[in-house]
Design brief:
The chain is α+β, with helices and mostly antiparallel strands. It has helices at residues 2-18, 32-41, 70-78, 118-123, 131-138, 151-157, 173-186, 193-203; strands at residues 63-65, 68-69, 80-84, 90-96, 103-104, 110-114, 146-150. This is GmrSD restriction endonucleases C-terminal domain-containing protein. Pfam families: GmrSD_C.
Amino acid sequence: MKSFIVASLLAAASSVLAAPAPMPTPPGIPTAANAKTQLASLTVKPYVDDGKYERDLFPTWITISGTCNTREYVLKRDGTNVVTDSACSATSGTWASPYDGSVWTAASDVDIDHMVPLKNAWVSGANAWTTSKRQQFANDINSPQLWAVTDNVNQSKSDKSPDAWKPPLTSFYCTYAKAWVQVKYTWALTITSAEKSALTSMLNTC
């Protein structure tokens, strides 16, 4: 009987260890139905690239709370068992990247991705904003704009919109599209016809 109990406990512990890390869920992700309604209301027009985009026009990262800046805030928000030092830098923890399903235990392997890239925002309306508003956009923790993801996947995405880049995990298409639409809707940014078509297809996987 004892051996049976021990075996059962070991099996249970093994299943816990084998369980996948929880995926982060930033705030403000709409339902698929609401995302489709929001998408339909967005202005469709070609991007306007005036050639003046610079990342410094979207100041990051700002102080969010105490000694924590935006990056550190998102790492703590989206990680599991995150331990930080007095400067709010993550010294340990686990991060599951929703874009590709990879799990990381070093914060240096994790980038904070802007769901709608800064340059994409620039060419879809943010070039007319004040620097203050662009700073708010770049550090927006109240919408699904900031995601903790695998660094090289973030670099692969770069400033591409959904018609040019999609997450490696097709199972994440639905959430990705809902988040993208929500950010564009919240910030009244435009979309291209190709972008709208790609988002529609992705929302149809929900």
